Amino acid sequence: MKLATYNLRSGGATRAHWGKMINEQTIDLLLVQESAHPDEHLPPLLHADARTRWVWTPVKQNGWGSGIYSATGTVTAIPVSGFEGWVIGAEITGSTWQNESSQSMIVFSIHAPSVAESYSKQVMRILDVIYEIAAGRDMIIGGDFNLTVSASLETSRPISKQDLEIRKQLSDKFGLINCWQEANPNQPLAQTLRWSREPNTPYHCDGLFVPSSWRSRLESSIALSGDEWIQLSDHNPVVATFR
Question: 135 burial class (0-12, 13-18, 19+ CB within 10 angstroms)?
Answer without folding.
Answer: exposed
